[in-house]
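During the no-cost extension, the postdoctoral fellow (Dr. R.K.) reprocessed legacy sequence entries with the updated structure-token encoder. One reprocessed record is reproduced below for audit purposes.
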Amino acid sequence: MSPLLAAASEAALQAAEPDRELLTRILEEPELSGASQAGSAIASIIEALQTLLGTLLGSEGAVGAAEVTRLIFFVLTAIVVVWLIRKLLQRLSPPPARAQLDPLSPLRLESPEHHEALAEAAVAAGRPREALRHLLLSALAALERSRWASYGRHKTNREYLRSIERRGAPAALCEAFGELVRTYDPLWYGQEEVGPPQLEAIGRLAAAARDAAARSPREGAASPAPALSSAGEAG
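Re-encoded structure tokens follow.
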């Protein structure tokens, strides 16, 4: 090599030396160092998968990285397809049927006398539970007529009781209706057998509640609408 070329090469090497030092410092930065560690971790995972697949497939040595990549892609594709099929089936399946309201819970109450007549007709037709319901409704109709309660299909009997107590109903009315509720609820919600003794007891308690409501109507309160009251269930 001529002295001129040798001198030029030496000068180029000396000029490149600071660049190598700068590159080393850049690679040692925390951000790039973390990326390098993450890359090493991914490489270790792929290597482990290669070894595992090689063992499962009975092949000699580790499976290639391409095979591992294809397997991962296949698994992810299968997961996406299953998710899409599930969503499609959910869209195509009919919505669940809505629970129907008890047909014995009317939209509005009739007069106490009307519900008494319906109870008698239900007893004659051999429908004791229906008779039980109309006996309760006759007491609720008396409470509404006397302005101590407002009927609603989704209200519970104990809500009615708390309502008349909160409105300052006489003790005799609260006691009579409370006894009716405490006797009626276990029969109705406990699905117990309803026979003549139970009907007689509920009939007597409902009559006492109706009489107490008739003797002490609430004054100074607006009368509930005679046709439609608030939507809710008695009981």
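The longest helix spans residues 30-57. The two ends are 110 Å apart (CA to CA). The remaining legacy entries will be reprocessed before the final report is submitted.
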